[in-house]
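Hi R.,

Here's the chain you asked about this morning:
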Amino acid sequence: MATIKDIAKRAGVSQATVSRVLNYDASLSVSDETKKKIFEAAEALSYRKKSSKKRSEKKIAIVHWYTEQEELNDLYYLSIRLGIEERCKALHISSEVYFYNSINEIDKNDIEGIIAIGKFSEQQIKHLKAISSIVVFVDYSPNENKYDSIIIDFEKATKKVIDYFLQSKHETIGFIGGREFLKGEQEALLDLREKTFKSYMQEKNLYDKRHVFIDGFSVEDGYNLMKKAIKQLKENLPTAFFVSSDVMAIGSLRALHEESISVPDRVSIIGLNDISVSKYIYPSLSTVKVYTELMGETAVDTLVERIEGRKVAKKIFIATKLVIRRSTR
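And the predicted structure, written out as tokens:
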């Protein structure tokens, strides 16, 4: 495992700065550029470098549903993007990244296909199809009969977490989650983590809507939701929480620390994604590992298949793995 020293050396900053950025220290004032260098260094050092003798003259566009600023607040998507870029380098494929606010800059005569990261509205999908007839979606499956997609099974991942908590003798389990919105849309997308938590806990006669807290997916959202849970539930705070993303879990941990609530002695936390910073925070975060690098690699390989003539759409599920660290008992 790469150390804080390794990340600091690669990013060209001090170890203290790396530590505070990886722990989302709210009192630290550094530029977004510095944060980006640190996060990308942490991700890059976690990859197993692959090489290929295969040569390619292909060029593709990587289209992100976030702006560059928004990506810094959700390292899950940053990690997928870097996985795509690493695979392109290994296959000697030229790639160009376009964030949400720069899609109109794509030259359709200069690319052979698009990898679209995140969620896109029907209008945006039509726009992408007008640029290239070959589009592969990552972390979204708008139409499995028409488009290739690389996704994970959030239902299975959520059940893994609940089963682990129950095996660990937790009787009250809370949920802290977020909802996502397509650009320009008012109605939130269905979140399978939230839906599965409710249905699976109901199946076991353990669901309590007072233990469910929902907002956005940022660190601050996780912090504010845990603060709300502590204030409302007091001594009835659940002994375990499934937090639907690692960055939200980091915010939740900060809220628990501020209230002097011991983790994991009083409250156990499990996040989701296993972003590279999860192992560096205190206590190190238990999480469901999503193989974002493999998602990115698979997207590139799937796009190449399409470019080389495959006609039938594929919907590919990437497995997840529960990783237990010090934030659970």
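The chain has a mean pLDDT of 90.

Let me know if you need anything else.
M.
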